[in-house]
Known about the structure:
The protein is α/β, with parallel strands linked by helices.
Amino acid sequence: xxxxxxxxxxxxxxxxxxxxxxxxxxxxxxxxxxxxxxxxxxxxxxxxxxxxxxxxxxxxxxxxxxxxxxxxxxxxxxxxxxxxxxxxxxxxxxxxxxxxxxxxxxxxxxxxxxxxxxxxxxxxxxxxxxxxxxxxxxxxxxxxxxxxxxxxxxxxxxxxxxxxxxxxxxxxxxxxxxxxxxxxxxxxxxxxxxxxxxxxxxxxxxxxxxxxxxxxxxxxxxxxxxxxxxxxxxxxxxxxxxxxxxxxxxxxxxxxxxxxxxxxxxxxxxxxxxxxxxxxxxxxxxxxxxxxxxxxxxxxxxxxxxxxxxxxxxxxxxxxxxxxxxxxxxxxxxxxxxxxxxxxxxxxxxxxxxxxxxxxxxxxxxxxxxxxxxxxxxxxxxxxxxxxxxxxxxxxxxxxxxxxxxxxxxxxxxxxxxxxxxxxxxxxxxxxxxxxxxxxxxxxxxxxxxxxxxxxxxxxxxxxxxxxxxxxxxxxxxxxxxxxxxxxxxxxxxxxxxxxxxxxxxxx
Length: 508
């Protein structure tokens, strides 16, 4: 086990929880004398976070053969179970071919991209065939159609990888021990570059640290402006591009060391691909900053709501999925039920139409976790009260205003942190998930955990800046709040001040 821990630390920085789970899993197998009847490991995380290399490190540390089987795009059951020998060109399945190549009965077999298998076509369902392979109680008598006799796969240590856990069928998912591997922060990427990437890339390009010198600032600049991702692939690719440029100049006879700074990076890599990631903190009416989870990590999700003269219709745009559309309907109904408390006249629902839009219309969006963000945007648009933009939020909301637990907490917190937001509103049931967030991030971010939508309204919905003006004449945006207010953390004192200032919310 000490060798396993050392091998994992030598090849991977961070990922402490994933490493701990792996060592615990192997410890149980050791105490049971190598008894294979245990769970199958499944590493789930964004691309480029080290899932495959973790499997290689495990195989190296325990002295076993390693073989990777890519099943992405496999749509024929015969690819798993093999073809019957009566067919022309018949071959064994991928599992038997792998065992034939490694020539041992106890290899580490990595089933890569298991979430990208296609199922249910005319050629059978390969995911259903994997049920027997990944069931420790059945795979000691796996029957390949080509061999047509039982084959013992129980000695193999199976490790699966996936980007999206919910693309794996539930019966197959139930057979696996899921280990989540989240994305890296910019600070972690810089540390990984110093420890692993730079020494390896220098050797691969035939240059040394006497020829090129990076700084923390230049590595952070590359990560933020050229490779904004949860993993490391584009980050490494951009560093390699800079090294190739230096290798060419050295081959042409240029001597001396290049000191890589932001200006030099831009000169070599061209115009930055991403703008400076910073959230707009000027309060606006009907505009709320939410948080989203994607397969490549977390991201900010701005939600806009606008009211206009009409007949009470609700319009939703932005390529939303069915679940999110239902969230909009639930949010609108909740706002109607709390109209008097929020300060919305009853006539508003007959005299105005509401349009809810999620920018980046080319990107499909779905899921319930934008519930409190949608509710706040609609409440702000109808009441003409601005929303604090220095706060990001996430959480599902019920029809009665209860805030429910959501997923992807670490990725969402890191997205807000990267954008410069230091105050977050989250469901109280997600407080336990903060243990996955890096300590340096938690020290700089103030969290407010809520259980009802009324708490969200008190924290984020401001009073009108021109209280005497009719709602239609109030400005669509208000000046930025004083610095003392904008930087005020959401504390118990702030909550009491907000509660006193937003007395109508407590009317019922």
